[in-house]
Amino acid sequence: MTDRLAELTRLFPDLKLSTDPGDMEHHGRDWTRRWPPSPLAIAWPASIDEVQGIVRWANQQGVAVVPSGGRTGLSGGAVAANGELVLSLDRMNRVLDFDPIDRTLTVQAGMALEAVQNAAREHGLIYPVDFAARGSCQIGGNVATNAGGIRVIRYGNTRQWIAGLKVVTGTGELLDLNRGLIKNASGYDLRHLVIGSEGTLGIVVEATLALTAPPPPSQVMLLAIPAMDALMKVFAEARHRLRLEAFEFFTDRALHHVLAHGAQRPFDDAYPFYVVSEFDAADAEAEAAGLAFFEFCLAEGWVVDGAIASSDAQAAALWRLREGITESLAPHKPYKNDVSVRISAVPAFMAEMQALLTREYPDFDVVWFGHIGDGNLHINVLKPTDIDNASFVEQCEHVTSMLVDTLARHGGSISAEHGIGLVKKPWLGSVRSEAEIALMRGIKAVWDPNGIMNPGKLL
């Protein structure tokens, strides 16, 4: 153990600290797997006081700090590749308070999203932000990336559900932001600076989450779509006729990999595109609206096959076809793009994007899927076994530069919900102006004057 770590142990004798190679490997990276982890050590504070003490120690010692949640990110935002101290929130994982009048749940930042959802249900309410990594991602990381997921179309991103935050800044100061207020016209709302800041301003240690009433019973439907130009027609009709909770799209290649990973084939025939939709079905009238929507789309030729879940098990099986995609692709070391455009721009952008990907990746397996109802698409390029990783990334980054130009023509973003991190940092200027980036740098300098908080990420 180095002298610096010995000093940290002396200051906080109860602090859990490790330099075990297995711990360093596991906690020094996220799902990108592109950068070899090389942290100084892993620290697991159990209290806000310990978090503040670690940050103050880091400032004195000139040690960079990488905040670590569930590390399910896909942009390199939680990578510790240059001797940083990884500060894991795993031990700070408790519910602190429930307020039935305000309908808020206050939790420590290391609590897993699924545990938060379960805690809300115990009080007859829901925390509606949801995505496939719910069992391992943590609330602090959700806040740091303004995570979205599969129900944004109805409930919005994480930002909409954060009533208050406690944050330890880059100097070790504790900020109590907004304190659960609904109305608070008292100057800059610093809470929203922290949301989406990717750990570059400070460390989220507590979050007060707004809860809401459960939705009425829902229906899950899988649709087979014959052509890309029908997708948005189906979406428009669904939004017109139904109360949508989710509208998720994926391609035949995505289905291929999920089926190979153990999912059940939904139809006898194969189709180029699929949609999983979920909508309110509280009564016979709402269920009839769902059937009428399907029959209308079938008659128009926008849909060629479909399946409606008649049980919770069937609904889960249909959702697995969408939620299992990322896990099924992981062994293939995919290069990922996470992009967004306005919903109205989706058809034109998708047409250009498909032409670009077909031209530039003639021999690669390209899998795309996304939250079509909020303009967010995920593009996964699978690495062939006969290409080394560096050459593969170089080819993909060349295509990403062209994709960025296409996004710019449609007013889109290179990062919809996974953050900038290390992966997308070269293209930040395609989304933010020079003036905006200068202001962002200025904000970071105030919050983190010594530049120790997740350095090299985002900016």
UniProtKB/TrEMBL annotation:
Domain FAD-binding PCMH-type: 35-214
Transmembrane regions: none
Cofactor: FAD
Pfam families cross-referenced by the UniProt entry: FAD-oxidase_C, FAD_binding_4
Oxidoreductase among keywords: yes
Keywords of this entry: FAD, Flavoprotein, Oxidoreductase
InterPro entries: FAD-bd_oxidored_4_C, FAD-bd_PCMH, FAD-bd_PCMH-like_sf, FAD-bd_PCMH_sub1, FAD-bd_PCMH_sub2, FAD-linked_Oxase-like_C, FAD-oxidored/transferase_4, Oxid_FAD_bind_N
Keyword Oxidoreductase: yes
Stated family: Belongs to the FAD-binding oxidoreductase/transferase type 4 family.
Name this polypeptide is given: FAD-binding oxidoreductase
Organism: Luteibacter flocculans
